[in-house]
Amino acid sequence: MNARRSPLNPAQNSGSRTPGEPEFLAVGKLLKPHGVRGEMRMEIWTDFPERLRAGGTVFIGKTRRQVRIKSVRGHQSSALIAFDEFENREAAGEFRNQVIFVRTADLPPLPEGEMYQHQLLGLQVVLDADDTPLGVIAEILETGANDVFLVRPPQGKDILIPDIDSVVLKTDLETGQVRIRPLPGLLPE
Predict the structure, then answer these.
(1) Is the CB of residue 121 less than 8 Å from the CB of residue 137?
(2) Coil/strand/helix, residue 144
(3) Could you read off the pLDDT of 64-112 as tens digits, one per residue?
(4) Three-state secondary structure call for residue 104
């Protein structure tokens, strides 16, 4: 199934959101001005930074101020980004520590069999053998080797389910279910 770590997802590129899907998704955070021409350092939070390019539209801060990207380029472990609306250091500096968002409906679809992480949140996890519901995916933990779903049952302690092909058999966004076959000892008694 392979979830992609990104706050981005289209509703099959239809221009509208899937019910329950967020309208905006965070892709980074503006840090501080760089130079005198309105550039800012940006911490990148998306696996797809190449989608942030000159001419594109993003939204800044809690008010979701719409701005157009003038330029973006890599800089050390972050990026330098400039917007048409900010011509100098002072204007850009007003947006220090603000989060940058994109619209969910504006994003391209992923290849077949892949999905964005936020699509998985809230899905019901069920045992493949007998359709026993375990709970819903409340969080996705990144471990380096593979992602791990934190499943929140209606009662009891959270369950950690590794997102690996031998455990996660099928993810169906239409039914809102993730079917699993747990490894021995994975589930509490």
Answers:
(1) yes
(2) coil
(3) 999 999 999 887 777 899 999 888 888 888 888 999 998 887 777 777 8
(4) helix
β-strand 147-152 against 159-162: which pairing, if any? antiparallel
Domains along the sequence of the chain with CATH: 3-106 (2.40.30.60), 121-180 (2.30.30.240)
Please tell me the pTM assigned to this model: 0.62
Contact 98, 85 (CB under 8 A): no
H or E element in which residue 103 lies: strand 99-103
Q: How far apart are CA 149 and CA 163, in angstroms?
A: 7
d(CA 66, CA 131): 45
Contact 171, 115 (CB under 8 A): yes
Contact of 123 with 178, CB cutoff 8 Å = yes
Contact 177, 126 (CB under 8 A): yes
Q: Which one, of 47, 41, 25, lies nearest residue 95 by Cα?
A: 41
**If you average pLDDT over every residue of the chain, what do you get?**
82
In the block, tokens 């250091």 appear at 89
- Neighbouring residues of 147: CB distance < 8 A, sequence distance ≥ 6: 3, 5, 117, 140, 141, 162, 163
Bridge partner list, 25: 102
Residues near 49 by Cβ (< 8 Å), separated by ≥ 6? 79
